[in-house]
Design a protein that fits this description.
The protein is an alpha+beta fold. It contains eleven helices and ten strands. The protein has two domains: 147 residues, Up-down Bundle (Four Helix Bundle (Hemerythrin (Met), subunit A)), CATH 1.20.120.450; 237 residues, paralog of FGE (formylglycine-generating enzyme), CATH 3.90.1580. Helix 3 runs parallel beside helix 5, helix 3 packs antiparallel against helix 6 and helix 6 packs across helix 7.
């Protein structure tokens, strides 16, 4: 007889698999072939590849490794394994219908196996598979965003009979898509914001967080990391960490605040930039964030599409700094009154739409003071969702780290070249949204949905 607890866990996993997949497929509603298979940026694979990779990973770990089933589509290993084809060669994809057939065939077998799988032994792996799909959903979301902006440029350019700039053909050395966004902003300032859905903007709150005082976090120990069944390997092991007193901003840096840095010539003044940051800027001559609009409606939204170097330079400009990963996590999760760590800033219950901007519910950033019910015990807003937040900490292993389910997931990136981001974004799925979750990227990456807040 199956125990109630085991059966309940099976049903919970089945429900999570179903909910996660619905959200994944919704991202592909009405997608055309070019969008499905085109590489929007050299650092990211086509969205169609990510969809196939989701099926491949689910089959590899749950059917092949656990159930002992032979590969259902052997030919897809070459295409969808993460360690075979370079990203630029992942554009020669099966059709959307064929990839959906792959997803559906794998999922039917997975659900059948779930009925008898030893969940007591495997639950962590099932949680990993759900989170793996969640993370690729977020990548799909911001790659689609890059492609939407590029199409908007072309449409606006055609309407204005304005040729695309020469920089699009590579005459100026910028990362892929950088000039596309810069030119789109120029066109927006010429014709105003469109109201046909391409650039339709939300209405910001009247309150401005720009002059809110910093929050003082008293010295002391707090619990950092995560030993839960859903913890990824880099979140373990949970440990006590001591911090001296510090201050942190209650909100992420807003577009209104960041505009000051742009207008005083922050991108042209080396005094605000570290040596590595200034070198990055000379090789990537940008003058504003990637996802930028001068429309004042966005004043209260978090700045988005900045590299770590840009975040560091802004902090230097205003006499502050980026928080460490530990400082960020304490401000987000620790309740000093109860001496208990919360999974989420608001407590233990999983994220809901009224607590933070996540799961593609809004599909764009929102004003940083939109979610009062999502505040942390210390009073910090927007710690989860909206935009990822850069920290000053390099991605490293916690004491007691053990790679799972394979060394390449996290361990490969403990290389002193990746910095930690915390908090999730408007595209982060609920299964990958918690205060202990650790994201990591090279400091020069700005295509992700990333902003920051300041500390002192």
């Amino acid at each position: 007889m199956i125990s109630t607890s085991v059966q309940f866990r099976r049903e919970a996993i089945a429900l999570a698999l179903h909910r996660c997949r619905l959200g994944t497929l919704q991202l592909f509603d009405g997608i055309d072939w070019d969008t499905f298979c085109r590489q929007a940026h050299s650092e990211f694979s086509p969205v169609g590849w990510h969809l196939g990779h989701i099926a491949y990973t689910e089959e590899l770990w749950l059917l092949q490794r656990c159930a002992g089933i032979s590969p259902l589509f052997p030919k897809y290993r070459q295409m969808f394994a993460a360690d075979i084809l370079p990203k630029k060669e992942r554009v020669y994809l099966p059709t959307f219908a064929e990839v959906c057939c792959y997803l559906d065939t794998v999922r039917k077998q997975v659900l059948n196996y779930l009925k008898t799988a030893p969940i007591e032994e495997q639950e962590r792996l099932w949680q990993f598979v759900i989170q793996h799909e969640s993370q690729h959903c977020e990548t799909i979301s911001f790659v689609l965003q890059m492609q939407r902006e590029e199409k908007a440029i072309q449409q606006l350019s055609n309407e204005l009979n304005t040729p695309l700039p020469n920089s699009l053909s590579g005459n100026i050395k910028l990362p892929d898509s950088e000039n596309l966004f810069l030119h789109l902003n120029e066109l927006k300032s010429t014709v105003g914001e469109r109201e046909d859905g391409i650039n339709k903007l939300p209405i910001a709150n009247n309150l401005s967080p720009s002059h809110s005082p910093m929050i003082e976090i008293p010295a002391g120990k707090f619990e950092m990391g995560n030993d839960g069944i859903d913890a990824l390997d880099n979140e373990q092991s949970s440990h006590l960490h001591y911090l001296e007193t510090y201050c942190i901003d209650p909100y992420p840096v807003t577009c209104n605040q960041y505009r000051n840095f742009i207008e005083v010539g922050g991108y042209q003044n080396p005094q605000y930039w570290s040596k590595a940051g200034w070198e990055w800027l000379q090789n990537n001559p940008v003058n504003q964030p990637l996802y930028w609009s001068n429309n004042p409606t966005f004043d209260n939204h978090p700045v988005c599409g900045v590299s770590w170097y840009e975040a560091e330079a802004y902090c230097q400009f205003i006499g502050k700094r980026l928080p460490t990963e530990a400082e960020w996590e304490k401000a987000a999760s620790w309740n000093s009154h109860t001496n208990i760590k919360n999974i989420y800033p608001w407590g233990e219950k999983e994220p809901q739409p009224h607590q933070c901007n996540h799961d593609n519910t809004v599909g764009k950033t929102t004003p940083v003071d939109t979610y009062p019910e999502g505040k942390s015990a210390y009073g910090c807003w927007d710690m989860l969702g909206n935009v990822w937040e850069w920290t000053s900490s390099w991605f490293h292993a916690y004491e007691g780290f053990e790679s799972y389910p394979y060394p390449g997931y996290s361990q490969t990136y403990f290389d002193g070249e990746h910095l930690v981001l915390k908090g999730g974004s408007w595209a982060t799925r609920p299964w990958a949204l918690r205060s202990s979750f650790r994201n990591w990227y090279h400091p020069g990456v700005r295509q992700i949905i990333a902003g920051f807040r300041c500390a002192k």
